[in-house]
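Before a colleague's protein record goes any further, I have to sign it off. Thanks in advance; the entry in question is below:
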Amino acid sequence: MRQFRRASIAVAALYIAVLASICSWIFAYVKQPPVVRTRLQYVASPPRVEPPPDKPDFAPIVVKPKVIPQGIHLDVRHFGNYNAYVLTVSDPRLISIVATKYMGEVGETVEQFVGDHHAVAGINGGSFTDTNWQGTGGQVQGIVISDGKVISSAVRPESVIGFTAAGKLISGTYTLAQLKSMNVTQALMFGPTLVQNGVGQIQGAGDWGYAPRTAIGQRADGTVIMIVTDGRELTGPNDIGASLGDIEHLMLSYGAVTAANLDGGSSATMVFDGQLVNQPTDILGERSVGTALIVR
């Protein structure tokens, strides 16, 4: 029995030795595939490019006037707390008040008004219903007369800005009957009057604070002065806007004998020679308004 165990152990040892020899030969003479090690390299992503804040994009005007009549000039003025764009028009008969063609539904931008009438320039006009500052310009308020046609009327006297058939700018409180008797052919509702008979009407800065402004005035020789300003810090902390007193002084510096305030704030817009001149402060860019004053 002992001899059998010894023989079994010897056979097992021999088997292991042979198996080890075979394995050694395989690893020594059979070519193994190379081991491939992949190195990962982490590359930082480029910084994300964000659009500049409060810089809305404005679409180009579809219709650009071919010829600018003589006597029309644009000045750009820089003051401590606002920028002003001053358009002077020597012939007041070139100016018309126009109302949205979608009356009762929605207004139009000044660019659209200018394009509709193939005009040279335009600024926003008068009052419209603006409940919770969400008005679309479709509901004009007060008296509106366009090229002699009464678009909107009122029973009571209102603060009116307009032009007679001879091209004289008026600003004050009138009824529709009074305007007709004065041969007023262009009119809208807004205010207040800034300059009357060459005398400023605003005490100090006025009571309306600082904001983007739109205004219209006239010199003794008939030249019309249109002013639009930036504001609400759209172009920087030094761009808070103008007070009524600021606009009154600017009108007087241009020789105005009559001047009046138009709708400002988000509505303030000027277009000239196919370009949007100022930077409107409405979150969507240009605001739709009910009326505009255009230069044909």
Residues 2-29 form the longest helix (28 residues).
